[in-house]
Amino acid sequence: MNFELSEEHLMIEKMARDFAVNELLPGVIDRDEHQIMATEYLKKMGELGLMGMMVDPKYGGSGMDTLAYVIAMTEISKIDNSCSVAMSVNNSLVCYGLEKYGNEEQKEKYLKPLASGEKIGAFCLSEPEAGSDATSQKTTAVDMGDYYLLNGTKNWITNGTQASTYLVIAQTNPELKHKGINVLIVEKGMEGFVVGPKENKLGIRSSDTNTLLFNDVKVPKENRIGADGFGFKFAMSTLNGGRIGIAAQALGIAMGAFERSVAYAKERSAFGDKISKLQAIQFKLADMATEIEAAKLLVYKAARLKNEGKDYSHASAMAKLYASKVAMEQTVEAIQIHGGYGYVKEYHVERLMRDAKITQIYEGTSEIQKVVISRGVLS
Ligand code: CAA
To answer: Looking at residues 143-164, what average pLDDT do you find?
Structure first.
């Protein structure tokens, strides 16, 4: 197994790190506190090729591999997780789904502006009564001949306000259960489609998370992705890749907290010396370094399997399960290392702790990852 990053990967890492440190870091505390969306930064990320990283350049993407995407996600997530979740959803749920399963017209019309970052996409699966139990879709897409009549409510939708293109999962044939579900491309501005208010969240506070309401929205038949009844498979397949993105986000959060802890331990003095000389601190840092390395190997392995066209559903679930646990535990530990300073906003680790929690919830809770992993183990 080759653990070395290529020249290209190192360049992506440096580019994403420079952007995060120079552009995102200065205003991140203010954006978090006041829930200010980072629209202008997402535009810049599009210009840098970060919003459609794995998409073929002929559709406006950067044509890079999954490892490059993971590396860039990690660097952005060390600093600003409201930006990295927008990046993750756009890349691995929306662009991936359209490129892999969309037809040529859909790719020309919808994928190109999303992959170039000119527009933002959202993935709409969760509902008030269908979160983990995703087959229980209540939103309906009734077949009316040349269009679907869409009715229902979606919630917890990342990029809900900023998106222009929404991939909406809805039930067409309830008697067929999950095999009767479709996925439709819905555009902002379609009559009957209303974006509800932004949620006020614990973490990723400048990311826009909304409830979406569909009231007799007429969605043209040509906006269905794939064959009739393919919607649930579409959702599961895209989420397999999405979980690599969220695992990379969690890895970045843990690495960000760790790097800040090391720097703080080297500069903070107590009992006549730097606290990095205390074994109590050294052992914490040793555990953090080891767990980060383990998480990184799982995330990189899932990325490599995806690149190689192999089954990565269990690997991505393992990567997300473990990396999100590491992110949560290590951000708590980072606050402990910082003491009282860790509890205030200026030192950034309290924000990373608040951001870490969602990585154990969205794109499949930790419990759902265990369902996916255990099914693989027992099959
Ligand atoms: N990859 C590919 N196919 C999968 C799959 C996977 N990971 N998981 C399930 N499937 C397929 C099954 O093979 C089955 O297909 P067949 O009927 O052809 O055999 C079909 O999907 C139904 O699966 P199950 O019978 O296993 O259904 P279930 O109800 O027992 O369990 C589940 C399914 C795995 C629990 C699924 O509902 C699930 O993943 N739930 C979590 C949903 C989720 O991750 N939501 C996140 C919301 S999106 C989000 O957060 C985005 C955002 O904005 C940040």
So the answer is: 98
Q: What is the pLDDT of residues 285-317, one digit of tens each?
A: 999 999 999 999 999 999 999 999 999 999 999
Cβ 325 vs Cβ 361: under 8 Å: no
Q: What is the pTM of this model?
A: 0.98
Ligand 1 center from residue 181 Cα (angstroms): 12
Q: Which long-range contacts (CB under 8 A, 24 or more apart) does 135-139 make?
A: 135/177, 135/178, 135/181, 135/232, 137/169, 137/170, 137/171, 137/181, 138/171, 139/168, 139/169, 139/170, 139/171, 139/214
Which protein residue has the closest C-alpha to ligand 1 atom 51? 363
R_g of the chain computed on alpha carbons = 21
Beta-strand pair 273-274/269-270 = antiparallel
**Residue 30: enclosing H or E segment and its boundaries?**
helix 28-34
Whether 137 lines ligand 1, by a CB cut-off of 6 Å, is: no
Told to judge if 104 belongs to the known catalytic residues of this protein, a careful annotator would answer no
Q: What pLDDT band is residue 1 in, cutting at 50, 70 and 90?
A: low
Q: Which atom of ligand 1 is nearest to the CA of 122?
A: 53
pLDDT band at 3 (very low <50, low <70, confident <90, very high): confident
Instruction: Decide whether any atom of ligand 1 lies within 6 Å of the 235 Cβ.
Output: no
Q: What is the CA(108)–ligand 1 centre distance, in A?
A: 28
Predicted confidence band at 143 (pLDDT cuts at 50, 70, 90)? very high
Contact of 308 with 65, CB cutoff 8 Å: no
Q: What is the DSSP letter of 145?
A: S
CA–CA separation, 185 vs 193, rounded Å?
12
Task: Indicate the burial class of 232 (C-beta count within 10 angstroms; 0-12, 13-18, 19 or more).
Answer: buried
pLDDT greater than 80 at residue 232: yes
Answer yes or no: is the C-beta of 240 below 6 A from any ligand 1 atom. yes
Distance, in Å, from the CA atom of 94 to the CA atom of 145, rounded to the nearest integer, reads 26
pLDDT of residue 2: 72
Ligand 1 neighbourhood includes 245 CB (under 6 angstroms)? no
Tokens describing residue 219: 């969605």
- Report the separation in Å between the CA atom of 149 and the middle of ligand 1, taken as the mean of its atom positions: 24
3-state SS, residue 318: helix
